Amino acid sequence: MMRKSRLFRPDNPHFLFNAINTIISYTRTSPQIASIFSWKLADFFRSNINPGSENVPFARELEHCEAYIGIEKARFEDRITVIYNIAPDVLDCKLPPLILQPLSENALKHGILPKETDGEIIIGAHRVNGFVRIYVRDNGWGCLPAQLNSLFF
To answer: Which residues of the chain have pLDDT under 70?
Structure first.
């Protein structure tokens, strides 16, 4: 079964347009940075268009996530700090493709962007009791208890 990112729905082109506008802006002020972000965008879309159906190493998922975050950091600059807390021994563990980036996107969109400053996302992965624990945390304002309760019922 192939997963498709929500980014490719015809009714949700915002990420693509925002990324392209950011790159265009940097072509005027810093062509070298525009070039770097163009490559990140290309890598990001290459992974999204054909993720495959096989499980991939965590390291590959992390690269995909880093490409996405790099593009968003170009847009929001100092509003976002990303901390990676990844144990080296989990980089080769296998997981379904397109798992980590949507979690990071959610943390950014719903946790960080409503804040004016000091947005922080922590992406972590460690082995715990024979399993790999992967998490994405943000320092956003959180949900109201009623919203949180409605997520699972």
So the answer is: 1-16, 45-53, 152-153
pLDDT score, position 8: 43
Whole-angstrom Cα distance, residue 48 to residue 103?
15
Residue 100 domain-assigned (yes or no): yes
Smallest CA-to-CA distance from 50 within 11, 8, 92 is with 8
Instruction: Establish if 75 belongs to a structural domain.
Output: yes
Six-digit token string for 30: 């810093």
The predicted structure's pLDDT at residue 51:
56
CATH classification at residue 129? 3.30.565
Number of separate domains in the chain: 1
Q: What is the C-alpha separation between 138 and 105, in angstroms, rounded?
A: 11
- Determine the structural domain holding residue 68 and report its residue range: 6-150
Predicted TM-score (pTM) above 0.90:
no
Amino acid at 126: H
Point out which residues pair with 131 in neighbouring strands: 128
Distance (Å, whole) CA 153 – CA 2: 27
Instruction: List 4's β-bridge partners, or say none.
Output: none
